[in-house]
Amino acid sequence: LAEWLTAGSASPNSEWSAAWLSLDQGDNDPAAFWTYVVAALQTAAPAVGADTLTLLHEPQPPQIESVLTSLLNDLSALASDIVLVLDDYHVIDAHEVQDGMAFLLNHLPPQLHLVIASRADPALPLARLRARGELTEIRAAELRFTPGEAATYLNEAMGLALPAQDVAVLEGRTEGWIAALQLAALSIQGRDNVAEFITGFAGDDRYIVDYLAEEVLQRQPVQVRDFLLQTCILDRLSGPLCDAVTGKPGGKAMLEALDRKNLFLVPLDDHRGWYRYHHLFADVLRARLVDEQAHQVPDLHRRASAWHEQHGELSVAIRHALAGKDFERAADLVEVAVPAMRRNRQETTLRGWIEAFPDDLIRERPVLTVGYAGVLLLGGELDGVESRLQDAERCLHPGAGMSEGRGALSTAMAAMADGEFRRLPGWIAIYRAALAQAQGDVVAAVASALRALELVLEGDHLGRGAAAGFLGLAAWTNGDLEAAHRSYVDCMASVRRAGHQSDALGAAVTLADLRVAQGRLRDAFRTYTTALKLASTHGGVPLRGTADIHVGMAELYRERNDLQTAAEHLLRSQQLGEHTGLPHNRYRRPVAMAGIRRAEGDLHGALILLNEAERLYIRDFSPKVRPVPALRTRVWVALGHLDDALDWVHESGLSVEDDLSYLHEFEHITLARVLLAQHTARTAEGSLHDATRLLERLLPAAEAGGRTGSVIEILVLQAVAHQARADLAGGLAPLRRALTLAEPEGYVRIFADEGPAIAALLKVAAKQATAPAYVRRLLAAVNTIGNAAPVQPGLVEPLSERELDVLRLLGTDLPGPDIARQLSLSLSTVRTHTNRIYSKLGVNNRRAAVRRATELDLLTRTSDR
């Protein structure tokens, strides 16, 4: 590979450059893996991946698909090609990394060519790539030496002058395996009885590499043999590092001598400063080290750990400490690393480190056990969190939790670890509030959050913001929206002071949600406008959370029936990219688009979008007050799919006799809608009675909680219920009150979405001069349902004629090469068109492109052409 890359990039006509990444076991953490991939790419294209690195190290990084979309966009803009080599990919076994790689392969821009060097087939969609003609495989049959090549290597390169029969024996026994031939040649050099060695080698020994490596090792001088064994624990070797591990000088000279002797040493840079052993050779050396000098292994790892710590490579220092079973030292180092790992969202690596410790040690180290509780909570694993927090509390008395080994750390690192220790009481209380909130125990969540505010250290703005946030979430869950708003104002201010501006935007979304629930749409607009100003002052890179602000603005404009402006905000959100939104808010964009589709009369399109929203929904600590299944049920009611709506009622377990709570208020209002629809469709008087009784119970509860948004909707449904009885006069009273509350805030869709059921009442109200201008506006909105030209925020720019041709074939089962042949295009050109189609449609795979094209009626248009 190295020879091919060197020759290709050096060619005068070359239009590509190379990037190389050598992997090791420590690269199974997704954040670390993709950071190194970007760093490798930047050696060939320095402008690539700056935003990607920012996303990877955000306090709350988005899903890897969003991160990689940013990288793919940068690569797509390159003028020349890059060949990215991932060497030793067989060490990668983390599902999160494999999933990201599969996404990358599915969306490779034509400028990027991926080369994977691996001992085993990677867990990637190889079969699909083969079927598409997008995979070139170079396997053992192509790589092994032919008999002629073996003879050239053994006799000319190694100077052995072997007869053809001996060469044939070695080639046959090794099956042309170059590493084995190299070991055999090294074993033969200087040997008196070569024939005897070859005869023995040609026997039934199943462990060729072990056998040959032993032969090579036994023939080395003692100092070389000791050096090889003592340094084989290292993933990378340099002169100073080898000196530290062996305890002897001369490491640089020894590495250079081994390199000259071709003794399985691979240079990692152009300056011969860093090397690694051939992995097969290193495996044998490590096995031999354990067999012959097992007592030295812990001390070798301890020295390696100390060197890497001193040079700022904390992760490598931790790996060596763990490998050497020096758990106390490893624990000290992990405690130092906890804040940065948490900040960079490397919970997978942190969890792996902690779980490598004996459980007794974890429970005796409060920083470790609280860190473990945190990664469990973030992973949604609630069992065991409380017991870990109790373990930490037992250690929190004067002097407890301070390891004797901490004195070996640098002064700065010891101070960092001690600082983390002093923050523990506050964070234990915060994690207790998080646990209680996740379990639905609002009383306990409030108590723990209040306790956290007492315990959080002065200057720990993030801790103070987190505690205020959980107080707000608890109040929101209870329906005390004003208290929730006050707490979230404090939360937003604290996280801004802590420098977590993206979390501040996330808090702004919650503040706006609270104002909407209170029926205060103008205040919600002001909240979003202020948040957009905050986002715009952050320089050229959009803050995470900016896309969510635009989605929220779209919802407000939709309610005001300004569908075009709403669509423009959704388009802006989409153009910013998923990486500029918080992960738990991804579902909100299709929900907002579904609202626009419904306002246009496209109820089936709204259903498709709500199904997508349900797939994207991620449960977090926020109360689930507007569940997607309830939104979908409302569309079913509008479509007349009563059986589907009744199935939802049955599955949700809702009843008109339920105790009422804000947490289920939206669902109970939805139940009232289903009952009204049941009366209309099946003349079920009992359903109308039940709906009326439920609405009568819901109204005072919403009024008492100051939830004016719900109050307006309930009043509208009460008016509709009177209309269902042909009691127009009775329906006017709740309608007038709803109009009085709604007009100052600019509500439109909350009335208009009722369609004909509300139109008759509005006409009567107009005749009686009730808010005449406002009522005329509402009637106009009702009358245009389904007649407006659909707004298409997903189509950033029109597709070209050729892109429409490619899109039509994407809707078939044809693989990429067949599409290229049918259109008389190169595969690279088809992939370029496909990537542009994805970008314009706002999707990231073929199936989503076809689905979106169907929604936009693009496939029909291509057929007509």
Overview of the molecule:
The structure is a single chain. The protein has 865 residues and is mostly helical. The protein has 48 helices and five strands. A three-stranded parallel sheet has the order 1-2-3, sandwiched between helices. A hairpin with a 7-residue loop joins β4 and β5. α25 runs antiparallel to α26. The two termini are 47 Å apart. The C terminus is likely disordered.
Chain-wise SSE layout:
Elements: H1 2-10, E1 16-22, H2 30-44, H3 50-56, H4 64-76, E2 81-87, H5 95-106, E3 112-116, H6 126-132, H7 140-143, H8 147-157, H9 164-174, H10 178-188, H11 194-201, H12 208-218, H13 222-231, H14 239-246, H15 251-260, E4 265-267, E5 275-277, H16 279-293, H17 297-310, H18 314-323, H19 327-343, H20 347-355, H21 359-364, H22 366-378, H23 385-395, H24 411-422, H25 424-439, H26 442-455, H27 461-478, H28 481-497, H29 501-517, H30 521-536, H31 546-559, H32 563-576, H33 588-599, H34 603-616, H35 628-639, H36 642-652, H37 665-682, H38 685-704, H39 708-724, H40 728-742, H41 749-752, H42 756-767, H43 772-783, H44 801-810, H45 816-823, H46 827-841, H47 846-855, H48 858-864
Parallel strand pairs: 1-2, 2-3
Antiparallel strand pairs: 4-5
Distance between the termini: 47 Å
| Number of beta strands | 5
Radius of gyration: 33 Å
Oligomeric description of these chains: single chain
Query: How helical, in percent, are the residues?
Result: 55-70%
Major sheet description: 3 strands, parallel
